Amino acid sequence: MSLLATDLVGTGRFRAYGPRQLDEIADRYGLPTEVRETVRLVSLVLPFRVNAYVLNELIDWDRVPDDPMFQLVFPQRGMLPEQDERGLAALSADPGTKAGLRALVQQIRGRLNPHPSGQKELNVPTTRDGAPLPGMQHKYRETVLYFPSQGQTCHAYCTYCFRWAQFVGDADLRFAAPDPGGLVTYLGDHPDVTDILVTGGDPMIMTTERLVNHLEPLLGVDTVRTLRIGTKSVAYWPQRFVTDPDADDLLRLFEKVTATGRNLAVMAHFSHPRELRTDMARRAIARIRSTGAVVYCQAPLIARVNDDAADLAALWRAEHAVGGVPYYMFVERDTGPYDYFKVPLARAVDLFQAAYRTLPGLARTVRGPVMSATPGKVVVDGVEDTPEGRFFQLRMLQARQPALVGRPFRAFHDPAAAWLDELRLHPDTPADIARAVTGSARAAEAAEDRDDTADTGPLAVAAGAH
Ligand code: SF4
After folding, report:
1. What range does the domain containing 107 cover?
2. Of the residues 73, 115, 175, 232, which should be mutated to test ligand 1's pocket, given the most ligand atoms within 8 Å of the CB?
3. In this structure, are 223 and 141 located in the same domain?
4. Which of 65, 416, 423, 443 is surrounded by the fewest CB atoms within 10 Å?
5. Cα(276) to centroid of ligand 1, in Å?
6. What start-end ranges are recorded for coiled-coil regions in this protein (predicted)?
7. Final residue of a domain: which of 364, 387, 406?
8. Each residue of 152-180: pLDDT tens digit?
């Protein structure tokens, strides 16, 4: 019996399937040959991973390839430039060109902006001696991101993931900490850090025993008051909290954290309301909440997956109905197959507002559209028509520089712009915000010198600023 068939008769054990099982998946679920071939080629560059729960419970195979969950996990035609796909097809058809194929794959990956938002250059903290600390990022004063090395995969991979570089096996593209020793020392030197976001990949891919090794030492640091766990496991493998052999131990660990008086925030990634419709997902959330943990829900807005106001409203209502807190609707970052998934900011605001309007007050905890960009998290609050023209109303929700948090600013409306670096700031933008947003001294000077810039026009944000 094949692996997939074993899963279908319900062993309930987690197994990941990737390009090697593609033929089996295609045969079982009736994937057309052309779609199968595209998945095979694109998955040479972008990571592809799925499991039986996603295949059986989340994908509507009658709607493939347009089905949102199929788009979410299966690499698609159009994610890579046509000429790259043709190049991959030509080289992979010839067994004598393996080195050439490897080189092309590396070249394409390098062009896909593997570390957006300056993660690699700007966010890596250092020891007292100035050596970089592996597996950590420190972008905002109060929060450190921690990447346990055994948590750098997921139960399935999202095709749009901005962390895709973590999964392609290139050591140079990975963040990973073997243990929390370096983090604990760092926290001793940085008492301002109150929140640790344990992330990946997906930390929930680890056994509970490993998770204990990574989390328990953090409970010895008094200044850490909140542990956040970033995970999509509730959507992709809710069995992790319900029927996995160490699911009960996991809940005991959660209880141990909350019993110390700390907040335990499960930052659950839900992309589509279908992910919350299964009994298993709802049971998982109920069990997590029974430990005292709070489930915050977030996801990027993604073309072809959830760029529909009715779906967004249904998603946030479903999150609220199970006791979760709708939190962020992010804007897709410029990485991986960005052109395939991006939603322009103007449309993102419309979708957000149309969905938000229909929500009960208690579900209006969701914020968006939010760009997690180099200077910080920037929300597009709306669009404003003035005698001067049409503008996006923007606000820094979070910032590297705390003095910028909460401050509004404006940019000229552009129906095609999809990220901060495509916007022109209004000439009245305060100098510190302009400097942070543009990353350009020249632009900041222009903002300071605003009397002379009545019609200076664009304060173009530096390319590659995120
Ligand atoms: S589950 Fe999260 S980290 Fe994993 S591929 Fe999806 S978005 Fe990326």
Report:
1. 3-111
2. 232
3. yes
4. 416
5. 17
6. none
7. 364
8. 899 999 988 867 777 776 555 466 888 99
